[in-house]
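Below is a filled-in request sheet from our internal design queue. Each sheet records the structural input a requester submitted and the sequence that came back. We keep these sheets so that new team members can see what a complete request looks like end to end.

REQUESTER: design group, bay 2
PRIORITY: normal
MODE: inverse folding
CHAIN LENGTH: 462
BACKBONE (tokenized):
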């Protein structure tokens, strides 16, 4: 049996799956938590990867390894390959002003989407580089290279061989703001404009490129976590993946690149050589955990409570901008609850409003994807939040679409493992996912209508 390993180094944890390359059967797995915060030293990811690999029985017997990772995080390295400062993550909003400045300097949003398929917001690496240039000139002076979380972990697995041996893949490169999925080329002029110097960047590998070796194992190009999840869940034309992890994402695989100057849909690349138009919210599964904390219950009880309240929660609306928001672009916003009355002031109403508010924000993303030409026949729901029965049952009413839920699993790590199997065997394996559940419901447009009336009514954070 040929074994392969897939890694998901995501915001909250690192997961490792080891699968049979031919059948996809899960052989072993492990996981380890990441520290909280939006600024994390990459060493913490390396320790978590080592712990998760050990829990998964080690990597000595695998033929290939691929790493999927949280997108956009800025990892800066000096000439010796030492980390210059803790990485700024995708959900760190301190570079919001840098995003505004960069859009102005290039002449507007359309110029950015024409150049690199996206409009800068605080999440994207290019804006973090500008923040660094504006606030930490000493660190900029020391920096010799910039890469992403998955690039850095792949490079560490290869033994940290030197800056010229940094590799990335199309999907993650397309989220930097200085690489174009449409042309398959870096825009190093935009990187230089952001950070005001030249930096070494990773070589972008194609779908079956190799990034070196870890012992006897080949290292695959890896991927951004969303692209890996799309590959792991086997998304087909007409499928839209909705991932409810730390972030909420809505995306599909496309044959042409997105170009959305509104900035809602980012024109990313996928792992097979195609494209991955994607909408991302900053607030997803943690809206549920926060609502559970407010109610003094766990997430299972939150789900029961939400299903006890009527659709629309009698008009109670929770606007879920707990970390500020990226879509819509409100980096300084806070969340809000509207429609409180004697009738709606119950735990069940609040639980229902939390689930519906989070899903309504994602449904707005679904509309934006359609506006970019995506065919949407059904939703495939993945990520930690998809484990919630309330989310599964309420989602079809909010999205107005059938929702398919694969068995609970690690679809980012699985996508990375599937890529590793492609590298090890020379062909993309057809791994089938059994026991998916389909949820249907009559659409309830009133849920989205009351959300639309409330979503602008927020105040900024202190
Ligand atoms: N049954 C559940 N109901 C609601 N949320 C859940 C459930 N199980 C896990 N989660 C949440 O899912 C999140 C983790 O999901 P995951 O997709 O692994 O996130 P990430 O990839 O961003 O680290 C955590 O915030 C966790 O609390
Ligand atoms: O910024 C994005 C996508 O553009 C996020 O989706 C990150 O890639 C983090 O993902 P999770 O840790 O929530 O899976």
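RETURNED SEQUENCE:
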């Amino acid at each position: 049996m040929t074994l392969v390993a897939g890694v998901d180094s995501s915001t909250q944890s690192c997961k490792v799956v080891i699968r049979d390359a031919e059948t996809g059967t899960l052989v072993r797995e492990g996981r380890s938590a990441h520290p909280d915060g939006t600024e994390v030293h990459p060493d913490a990811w390396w320790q978590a990867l080592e712990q998760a690999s050990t829990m998964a029985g080690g990597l000595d017997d695998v033929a290939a390894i691929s790493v999927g990772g949280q997108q956009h995080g800025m990892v800066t390295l000096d000439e010796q390959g030492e980390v210059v400062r803790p990485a700024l993550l995708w959900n760190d909003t301190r570079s919001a002003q840098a995003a505004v400045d960069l859009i102005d300097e290039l002449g507007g949003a359309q110029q950015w989407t024409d150049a690199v398929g996206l409009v800068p917001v605080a999440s994207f690496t290019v804006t973090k580089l500008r923040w660094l240039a504006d606030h930490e000139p000493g660190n900029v002076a020391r920096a010799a290279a910039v890469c992403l979380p998955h690039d850095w972990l792949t490079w560490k697995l290869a033994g940290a061989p030197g800056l010229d041996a940094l590799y990335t893949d199309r999907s993650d490169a397309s989220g930097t703001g200085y690489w174009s999925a449409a042309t398959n080329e870096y825009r190093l002029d935009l990187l230089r404009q952001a950070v005001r110097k030249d930096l070494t960047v990773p070589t972008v590998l194609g779908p079956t490129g190799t990034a070196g070796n870890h012992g006897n194992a080949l290292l695959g190009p890896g991927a951004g976590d969303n692209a890996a999840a799309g590959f792991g869940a086997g998304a087909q034309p007409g499928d839209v993946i909705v991932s409810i992890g730390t972030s909420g994402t809505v995306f599909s695989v496309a044959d042409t690149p997105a170009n959305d100057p509104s900035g809602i849909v980012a024109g990313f690349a996928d792992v097979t050589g195609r494209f991955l138009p994607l909408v991302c919210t900053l607030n997803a599964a943690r809206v549920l955990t926060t609502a559970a904390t407010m109610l003094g219950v766990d997430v299972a009880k939150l789900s029961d409570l939400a299903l006890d309240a009527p659709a629309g929660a009698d008009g109670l609306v929770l606007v879920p901008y707990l970390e500020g928001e990226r879509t819509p672009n409100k980096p300084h916003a806070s969340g809000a609850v509207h429609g409180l009355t004697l009738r709606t002031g119950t735990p069940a109403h609040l639980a229902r409003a939390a689930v519906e508010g989070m899903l309504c924000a994602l449904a707005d993303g679904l509309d934006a994807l359609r506006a970019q030409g995506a065919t949407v026949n059904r939703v495939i729901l993945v990520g930690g939040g998809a484990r919630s029965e309330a989310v599964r049952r309420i989602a079809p009413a909010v999205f107005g679409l059938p929702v398919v839920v694969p068995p609970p699993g690690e679809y980012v790590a699985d996508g990375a493992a599937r890529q590793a199997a492609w590298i090890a065997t020379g062909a993309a394996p057809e791994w089938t996912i059994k026991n998916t559940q389909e949820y249907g419901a009559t659409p309830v447009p009133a849920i989205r209508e009351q959300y639309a009336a409330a979503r602008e009514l927020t105040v900024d954070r202190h």
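SHEET NOTES:
- Residues 77 and 84 are 5 Å apart (CA to CA).
- The first helix runs from residue 42 to 55.
FILED BY: M.R.
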